[in-house]
Amino acid sequence: MLTILALASIVLLGIVPQQSEAIVIYTGWERHALVGSDIRLSCSFFSWRWTSEDVTFSWSYRPDGARDSISIFHYTGGAPYVDNKGPFRDRLEFVGNPARRDGSILLKNLDYGDNGTFTCDAKNPPDIVGRASSVRLLVFEKVPIQAGVITGAIIGAVLGLLVLIVVIYYLMRFLVARRVFNLSVSKHGRKGKGKEGSQQRQLWRPPPVTLLPLTS
């Protein structure tokens, strides 16, 4: 009886459809680019499942100041599809590798009007539950220096100054010690020469003269 129940449980578990698990999607946070340049917007995902042949990627775009997003790209069935009516119809290229869970796109010849938020969504069946990820694009005539670059430069300058101070400190200590050593050697040398001179003077002192009496 127990054997029959165990077999029935295995059969029922095999019939029950496999539940989906969460998928985590990653993009950058903010990208800066120059007018007329190209930029790659990366999109990847994490899933506990093997990469499915039915993996999909979708990109949408919401211009700055707009409420609604528009679809600009879709990858499904092993083929990429670019929206033929959107603002990037002639300037978008798929450069990702779905087999490696990469759904990146390349935007070409950027303009000020391309400023906005780009959102990537991915599905890896049966993992289809997940939150889309967004990256903001800012197009400038000249790319501004980011705060991180300034902070890094300041930290580097401070560290360089500290290293220079330490080097100067130990160099001064070395020079002072060398000067003291030279003075000490010179002083002992003069004392030694003085002792040798006094000894020589004692050795070369003329003997006393003895006067002999005169005889007639």
UniProtKB/TrEMBL annotation:
Keyword match Glycoprotein: yes
- Signal peptide: which range, if any? 1-22
Q: How does it sit in the membrane?
A: Single-pass type I membrane protein
**Mind telling me which residue stretches traverse the membrane in this protein?**
145-171
Protein transport listed as a keyword: no
**GO terms (BP aspect):** myelination
- Chief subcellular location: membrane
Q: Which GO terms describe its cellular component?
A: plasma membrane
- Give the PROSITE patterns listed for this entry: IG_LIKE
Note the SUPFAM superfamilies from the entry.
Answer: Immunoglobulin
Source species, domain of life: Eukaryota
Q: Which UniProt keyword terms apply here?
A: Disulfide bond, Glycoprotein, Immunoglobulin domain, Membrane, Signal, Transmembrane, Transmembrane helix
Question: Where does this one sit in the cell?
Answer: Membrane
Ig-like domain spans which residues? Answer: 17-138
Concerning InterPro entries, the annotation shows: Ig-like_dom, Ig-like_dom_sf, Ig-like_fold, Ig_sub, Ig_V-set, Myelin_P0-rel
Family per UniProt? Answer: Belongs to the myelin P0 protein family.
Q: What is this protein called?
A: Ig-like domain-containing protein
What is this organism's lineage?
Eukaryota, Metazoa, Chordata, Craniata, Vertebrata
Q: Which gene encodes it?
A: MPZ
